Amino acid sequence: MAQVAVSPSITDEFAGRFAGSLAMHQRANQVIPGGITHDGRYLKPFPPYIARADGAYKWDVDGNKLIDYVIGHGSLILGHNDPEITAAVRDQVALGTHLGAGHEGEVRWAEAIARVIPSAEKVKFTASGTESTLLAMRVARSYTGRTTILKFEAHFHGWQDYALKGNKPPFDSDAIPGIPRETLGTVDAIPANDAAAVEARLARGDIAALILEPSGASWGTVPLDDGFLAQVRNVTAAAGVVLIFDEVITGFRWAPGGAQERFGVMPDLTTMAKIVAGGLPGGGVAGTAEVMEVLEFKDDRGWNATKKVRHQGTFNANPLAATAGTICVTKCANPSVQATCDRLAGQLRSGVNATFVRRGLPGFAWGESSGFHVAAGVSATNQTGGDLRAPAGFSPTELVKAADTALNTRLHLGLMLEGVELFHGGGFLSIRHTEDDVDQTIAAFDRVLGRLDEEGAFS
Ligand SMILES: Cc1ncc(COP(=O)(O)O)c(C=O)c1O
């Protein structure tokens, strides 16, 4: 009897083509819990292990080339190995990787940030975004003398104990493994886009700060309504509550001066990481001199004992990060950087949406600035095949979960077989991505969606 050739499933083909990553994952599992070092890299059946990167591309341990939309978790807006940053960091390595003292590099870095971030009068450095949100909350608590931090459901502010409440559905859960209930009791998470509810919550008088992602949760997965930022600025100012914009992703990406410049709304404190450190580990908090004053030393024992916020950190303003960060922030001060990335992201979102529509398959891409998200298997009622900022017809919980399905995992694996790597069902553009990369990516989506359809994944 004639044999019918059955083509392998996407998952089987992935296991074969990425066999080196499978072997590395099995080895990693022996010494690293889960085999990964960031929960966001969890992928079934296993994640890729990358050997090197350049420009907009990465090569895995099997030599597979990937157009990289992870791009350093969003930190590499200049792409991998920006020549100026690479050369300057090499030079700095020879001058010392840790000077154990203040150095000109940190002063230049702070000056560069203060030049572009509109609300930044003073800057303090940390080693990550998580540390930045921790420090900003502490500053706000000392400045106001109040305890509770208000945040919005689904917004992500790093993995520290005060930041995780309300990050994942069910948003009202007050049990997070390893975090004391007492700690979670000092944070309140409420839905975004309801300024009256924010005002009512502030009226109770216990809120030190409102922290939010000015793009909406996870670089726009759950977009904010137009005008909402200005409304929360007004109600926080009226209540004497510190407004913290977490610009770890939007900083230097939404505009040279971040989302605050793009939307013309000024926070009291800004948390930064990723792009600010030019692809090296680092972060910081910027703010008005008045709020940041609680970080100052004074010849006043009372002040130092009751108001002065303590802040240490072996790797704060590390010279390598300061070198990379100063060059990166300075290059990003040219708005053509953001304009280029925004344009490419818009083309990508539109092209993917047109593909879904042309194939008659449920799914859509959405996003703002140079970020994008993709959800296959569900329909937005305002999907027209063009660019889409805010998909209609979903609750925040549905939007957060839209890309977190077995179908979307298969889409992710299928795209890797086509040489494209996404980040959390979406990703970011850099100035090293080209129109050709975007066209190739749209063509890859087309082929993988067709293949998934043939595999019955949409039925
Ligand atoms: C908005 C936001 N805040 C804070 C963080 C935490 O930054 P880090 O991973 O550097 O600790 C992230 C990380 O992705 C983030 O996206």
Question: How would you describe this structure to a colleague?
Answer:
- The protein has about 450 residues and is an alpha/beta fold.
- It folds into two domains: about 190 residues, Aspartate Aminotransferase, domain 1, CATH 3.90.1150.10; about 250 residues, Type I PLP-dependent aspartate aminotransferase-like (Major domain) (Aspartate Aminotransferase, domain 2, 3-Layer(aba) Sandwich), CATH 3.40.640.
- It contains 17 helices and 14 strands.
- The strands form three sheets. Strands 4-10-9-8-7-5-6 form a seven-stranded mixed beta sheet, with helices on both faces. A four-stranded mixed beta sheet has the order 1-2-3-13. Strands 11-12-14 form a three-stranded antiparallel beta sheet.
- The radius of gyration is 23 Å and the shape is globular.
- The model has no long low-confidence stretch (mean pLDDT about 95).
- The protein binds pyridoxal-5'-phosphate (PLP).
- Pyridoxal-5'-phosphate binds next to helix 5.
- Pyridoxal-5'-phosphate (PLP) binds next to helix 5.
